[in-house]
Design a protein that fits this description.
The protein is mostly helical. 69% of the residues lie in helices and 0% in strands. It has seven helices and no strands. The model has no long low-confidence stretch (mean pLDDT 79).
């Protein structure tokens, strides 16, 4: 996937991940959180699978760590999903419909990105899309009802910003754009 393709795909998918405007009812919150969690899990799988072939040794270490961070973010989001004894978890039931997670699963199913050195660049684009989605939801929280959601979204957004900064700090091999 080229940078332009990634940008176009991610712009569409960011709109999906944001969910409806304004404070959400419980079922809508479950859909949004479930879709975001599905993307984080797909990012975990994709980065983990590509980590051994990510390019430079620094990128291999980064991809392994970034994969684990995506799993951590997914775990944080899982705690926000409503549960009830005897019922399938709502977010898990809704997550497979996420187009964003499906796109990442397609990337994971492919043997590799066209060029392994592009893994950090593609991941950074996903980080930006996810961070924009979390910020969108943070700006629309109901202060009275969404305290736990706000705390988790702040944590995962901060983690995504740290991950994007880690990508920027990766050494650039000769002949590779900055």
């Amino acid at each position: 996937m080229s940078s332009d393709e990634a940008g176009g795909v991610l712009a569409d998918l960011t709109a999906e991940l944001r969910g409806p405007d304004g404070p959400l009812q419980m079922i809508d919150t479950a859909r949004v959180v479930g879709a975001l969690r599905a993307v984080e899990l797909a990012l975990f799988a994709w980065l983990g699978r590509l980590a051994p072939t990510a390019g430079t040794p620094e990128e291999v270490v980064w991809a392994s760590s970034a994969s684990l961070q995506a799993a951590w973010r997914a775990g944080e989001l899982q705690q926000l999903l409503p549960v009830s004894p005897g019922l399938e978890p709502v977010g898990d039931a809704l997550a497979p419909s996420s187009r964003a997670a499906a796109r990442l699963r397609e990337l994971n199913a492919a043997e590799q990105v066209e060029r392994p050195e592009r893994v950090p660049e593609v991941a950074a684009a996903w980080y930006r899309a996810l961070a924009a989605s979390y910020r969108f939801r943070l700006e629309r929280l109901s202060p009275a009802a969404d305290g736990p959601l706000g705390r988790v979204f702040c944590r995962v957004e901060a983690d995504l910003q740290a991950e994007e900064e880690a990508v920027r700090r990766l050494p650039k091999p000769p002949g590779r754009s900055a």
